[in-house]
Structure formats: structure tokens, C-alpha cells
Amino acid sequence: MFLFQPPNPIRFNNNSSGICNIFGQVSPVVSVNGNVTTFTYTWVHPCTGNILQHTRLRNITFQFDPILVLDPDLANACEGQGFTLADIDPQDVSGSNSTFTYYWNMPFEPGNEIIELIIYPVNPVTIYVLATNDFGCTDFEPFTIDIVPAPNVGAGK
User: Fold this and answer.
1) CA 157 to each of CA 17, 149, 150, 153, 154: distance values in angstroms, whole numbers, following the listed order
2) What's the pLDDT score for residue 83?
3) pLDDT-based confidence at 2, cuts 50/70/90?
4) Burial environment of residue 135 by CB neighbours within 10 A (0 to 12, 13 to 18, 19 or more)
5) Bridge-partner residues for 140, per DSSP?
6) Which of 36, 56, 132, 137 has its CA 20 to 30 A from that of 67?
7) Are 102 and 129 in contact (CB under 8 A)?
């Protein structure tokens, strides 16, 4: 299955007559190896058996969207203590090379980006993890941080 239109057949004619006349058209034989698609045109002269061959290569790069997975997608932080963003383990399961950034809110713009490596939420909060691959394609997932109340030592005495 092609994601693009393959080249048209090559038409040829040397405008000669008799045994030297070469004319016709040849469609390519297509082979794919990774990102490289090869189109090989082969023509065999019907009288002499001589082979004429022409090869065209196309390097095709497919831009895949990242597929971001957060497992787990939530964590607990103790009241009054920081939460380290490095404890979030984002994975891009598409196999593309993604970088991850963290945001307080959408839209994903500089004013909402979390720059600190450790955050100190006082209430439960949902932040957003954004995966961006080498092609500029993105995916995001929410990550929830719940706050565990600090123990009340000595209460009631």
C-alpha cells in the first residue's frame, strides 16, 4: 500500500528504425527497505536480449505522533513537602524520540510551563505532561497529585 503516488511508467523511443529501434514503456518494480523505496525499471531488447535498467530511489520519512503513557498517572505528596517531577515516568510507546515538558494548565505555552524540578502543591492538583518528538508532533496526558495531610502529632493532649 502506497501513501503516495508511485512514478508513472517510463516511455522511451530512440526514433530509429529496423533492428535498432527501441520504443515502449516500462512500469517500475517497487521494493521497500526501511525509509527507502526503490523503483526499478527494466527493459529487455526483444532481439538482442540487451538489458536497459533505470533505478529511482525515494527516501520517505513518516512522521509518527508520540503515544504518551503515564503509569501510574497519579501520585501522593505529603502536605508541606515537595513533589519531584523526575518521579513521573513518562514513556513514548510509539518508539519516537520524545522530550517531555510539564504544564500547570492548558494551553501548552510558556506561561503555563512548570520550570521548577520540585513543586509544592498545597491542594490536590492535575498537571499535564506533554511529549514532543523530533518531528514536532505531540501528545499529552494529565497527571494528578493528591495531598496527604501531615500527621497531627500531640493533638488532644
Assistant:
1) 115, 20, 18, 10, 6
2) 96
3) very low
4) middle
5) 130
6) 36
7) yes
Domain ranges of the chain: 10-59, 68-148
Q: Is the overall model pTM greater than 0.70, yes or no?
A: no
User: Looking at the predicted structure, is the pLDDT value of residue 19 above 90?
Assistant: no
3-state secondary structure of 18: helix
Question: Taking Cα atoms as reference points, which of 70, 86, 87 lies closest to residue 143?
Answer: 70
* DSSP string covering 38-71: EEEEEEE-TTT--EEEEEEEEE----PPP-EEES
pLDDT 10s digits, 77-115:
999 999 999 999 999 998 888 999 999 999 999 999 999
Of residues 118, 121, 117, the one with CA closest to residue 80: 121
Contact in structure between 23 and 9 (CB atoms under 8 Å)? no
- Architecture, CATH, for domain 68-148: Sandwich (2.60)
